[in-house]
Amino acid sequence: MEIPWDLILIQTVNGIVTGMILALVASGLTLIFGIMDVVNFAHGELFMLGAYMGVIVLTTTGSFWLALILASFIVALIGAALQVTTLRPLLGRDPLNTILATFGISLVLQNYALWQFGPVARKIQEPFTGQFTLFYLQYPWYRIVIAALSAAIIGGLYLFLKYGRYGIWIRATTQDRVMAQAMGIPVPWVHTAVFAIGAGMAAASGVLFGPLVGVSHIMGLDWVLKAFIVVVVGGMGNLGGSIAAAIFISLLEAYASIWVSPAQSVIVSSIVLILTLLFRPTGLFVPTPK
Amino acid sequence: MSKRHASIYWTGFTVITVLLVIAPLVLPEFWRRFLTEILIWGLLAMSSDLLIGYTGMVSFGHSAFFGLGMYGAAAAILTVRPPNIWLAILYGLGASAAVALFVAYFSTRLRDIYFAITTLIFSQIFYVIIFTWTEVTGGENGLTFSRPAFGIPGVWTVPFTSTTLHWFVLAFVTASYLILRRITQSPFGMVLQSIRENEARTRAIGYPVERYKIVAVMLSGLFAGLAGVLYAVQNRFAAPDFVYFLISGEAVIFNVMGGIGTLVGPIFGAAFFLLLREAFSRFLTEYYLIPVGVIFILMVIFLPQGLFGFAKRWLNR
């Protein structure tokens, strides 16, 4: 069989672009998990809400960048409200309860979106439409910009966690919740803030990705499932691992879709998941536990 | 269980069973169908209770077992002439057992939320396969067929009416309930419960925990598959929607609403959920999941032992 090098190169670019967005979604998920042991089933719905908020702001103001910022901010607020009302009462109970609660949230949000915005997919206009030539394809610059922006947001998060005053609070809470509380860190509010940050990141990726696929009430499902795969393969609660896994899996799916239909390429990532579970149940991109 | 307890239990069991047997004779057509459906979903809920309530593993992948049961039954009914109801059950159970073995082998290596996520992703793999393999599974449209008759083909058959179908389903659900109850009270069930309470200690005592978990997932998958077969027979179709993970989510909702670890509770949970759906969809149509979801969240927070657990505690007070 002849190897289609040009297709492979195009799919490499595609894979990295979707991988960066997936990394943005998954890093919010893994951050929330790492700090509060909450598996956020509603993450895909926050992604979807972000995209819808983007649509609303974009149609009223006409500015894509304003839509990106406002949508992230609004969804972060919604996330904070959800955390305070539903997840905070569950603190200290079995983490499985949080799966159930966030699953309930996702059902409510998804059907609310269907009710409010209807079943017809909305379109977000790309902020600019420039293209460059990649072999015989006109490749939109916008996709490259998405990847760069996602990387920038993740980089910002990393710097914030590493050097920011509140970032250090967050890391302290991850390491030892009780000790952090004893040192005067308001742990419940750190949880709320982390959930809000995760929600905002999901919303940002929703707005960024909106122009590529169209905004609908079920768009979150695909992403949250992929993000779950990424987070398990990358090692739960491990930011760097999630990013590496996101790109790895997106690349694999992109290559797979050269030969099979895109719907079936999901099976490839599932196979990666199975192999990971068999040989490295703690995740591919974490140091071997002693 | 003390002697007095046992006699109260068996009296209650007999009364409810008799009521369920009489019910289709007095209920109008719509509610007769509704009751049958409650029993079928209740069976699915009970099957996942074996994992959630007794072994402490929350499965978000029961739709795979349920859906494969449906497709297995469809395969038997569409390929074998004349259609045979027993063969449908056999095929359905076979299909769900095969899937359950596959899922169990891989996902039992993980616990807690990892188990939940992996089962979810596995069920999505089967969803994608069924959805895209149009030549065999009918893809998005699924498969439709006519309901096979009851009896032994070629010897003696009688077509189902909605009343006899109800009794047929009731017989299977009651038998499954008794078997599941026996399983949970057997030494095997005790080991499962000790895994739930303290896995490390159970392993330290010398039980091969993984093997027990695999058997638990497979048993649970078999009963979920049986529910799928019954649902397929009742509704005369198999559709990819029923392999989609929302069905697994509903099974978990039934459990939480009814009370996990009680076997009977999940049936009540299914009844409660379906009644809520019926009530809300009268004026909210397809958006009924908004109020039902809110009620579910409130129950997770304020009523973690579920309706049945709550009633039990309230009665014992």
Task: Write a structural description.
Chain A is an all-alpha fold. Chain A has a domain at 25-218. Chain A is built from eleven helices and two strands; from the N terminus they run ααααββααααααα. In chain A, a hairpin with a 2-residue loop joins β1 and β2. In chain A, α1 (5-36) packs across α9 and α2 runs antiparallel to α3. The model of chain A has no long low-confidence stretch (mean pLDDT 83). Chain B has 317 residues and is mainly α. Chain B has a single domain (3-246), classed as ABC transporter involved in vitamin B12 uptake, BtuC, CATH 1.10.3470. Chain B is 78% helix and 3% strand. Chain B is built from 14 helices and four strands. In chain B, the strands form two sheets. Chain B has a two-stranded antiparallel ribbon. In chain B, β2 (150-152) and β3 (156-158) form a beta hairpin. In chain B, α2 crosses α12, α3 (62-79) packs across α10 (209-235) and α8 crosses α10 (209-235). The relative contact order of chain B is 0.17. The model of chain B has no long low-confidence stretch (mean pLDDT 85). The A-B interface holds A 39, 86, 89-90, 93, 95-97, 99-101, 103-105, 107-108, 110-112, 114-115, 225, 228-229, 232, 236, 261, 263-264, 266-267, 270, 273-274, 277-278, 281 and B 58, 106-107, 109-110, 112-114, 116-118, 120-122, 124-125, 128-129, 131-132, 249, 252-253, 256, 286-287, 289-290, 292-294, 296-297, 300-301, 304.
Keywords:
heterodimer; A: 290 residues; mainly alpha; two-stranded antiparallel sheet; globular; B: 317 residues; 14 helices
Structural class of chain A: mainly alpha
Give the % helix of chain A.
over 70%
CATH topological fold name of chain B: ABC transporter involved in vitamin B12 uptake, BtuC
Strand order of the largest sheet of chain A: 1-2
> Architecture of chain B, CATH level 2?
Orthogonal Bundle
Mean pLDDT of chain A: 83
β content of chain A, as a range? under 5%
Give the oligomeric state of the chains in this entry, treating copies of one chain as homo and distinct chains as hetero.
heterodimer
**What does the main sheet of chain A amount to?**
2 strands, antiparallel
What's the arrangement of strands in the largest beta sheet of chain B?
1-4
> Whole-number radius of gyration of chain A?
19 Å
Q: Structural class, judged by helices and strands of chain B? A: mainly alpha
Secondary structure: number of strands of chain B: 4
What global shape of chain A is seen? Answer: globular
Q: How many distinct helices of chain B?
A: 14
Question: How many alpha or pi helices of chain A?
Answer: 11
